[in-house]
Amino acid sequence: MMTHCHTLIAALRQQGCRMTPQREMIVEALAHSGCHMTAEEVLEIVRQKTSAVNIATIYRTLDLLVDHGLATRADLGEGRVVYATIRHGPHIHLVCRRCGRAQEADTALLASVVDTLREQYHFCCDTSHLALYGLCEVCQQIEDRIRDA
């Protein structure tokens, strides 16, 4: 049985992508993490194995994975862009615009919005990995106290 990273590497090869040792290490780092990672975090892991990789190579490889439907990208604001393999599954990031805290939510919560967009606007919305911005519970309470003061 192939590991998750080998499955991703095989899929890229099958889609005609050239797989360099650096690309393989990048895919391996993301696949084995099992969580969201920034390009810088991937670089940190790959640099433990080789210095023959730079941040541009990391971004190009992560974008390649996203473009081929093997990973997702989400912008969490303030320059925080995270990547995860498709195995991580669909989910929403709820990002507090005040403190920056992010928590995950189920994409099923958006089912009625997705259905409405499809029916009324003939638009197919991809909710597999996205970020919604607002205020977390703690920051809402702080905002309420400031407003009521």
What composes the largest sheet?
A: 3 strands, mixed
Number of helices: 6
CATH topology of the largest domain: Arc Repressor Mutant, subunit A
Number of domains: 2
Total number of strands: 5
The ordered H/E elements are HHHHEEEEHEH
CATH superfamily membership of the largest domain: Winged helix-like DNA-binding domain superfamily/Winged helix DNA-binding domain
Coarse shape: flat
Q: Could you list the spans in which at least 5 consecutive residues all have pLDDT below 50?
A: none
The CATH architecture term of the largest domain is Orthogonal Bundle
CATH class membership of the largest domain: Mainly Alpha
Portion of residues in beta strands equals 15-25%
State the helicity in percent bands. Answer: 40-55%
Distance between the termini: 62 Å
* Cα-based radius of gyration, to the nearest Å: 18 Å
Structural class estimated from helices and strands: alpha+beta
Q: Provide the residue-averaged pLDDT.
A: 87
Name the strands of the widest sheet in spatial order. Answer: 4-3-5
Could you give a short description of this structure?
The chain is α+β, with helices and mostly antiparallel strands and 149 residues long. The protein has helices spanning 4-14, 21-33, 39-46, 55-67, 111-121, 137-148; strands at residues 71-75, 81-85, 91-96, 102-105, 129-134. It folds into two domains: 1-89, Winged helix-like DNA-binding domain superfamily/Winged helix DNA-binding domain (Arc Repressor Mutant, subunit A); 90-149, Ferric-uptake regulator, C-terminal dimerisarion domain (Dna Ligase, domain 1, 2-Layer Sandwich), CATH 3.30.1490.190.
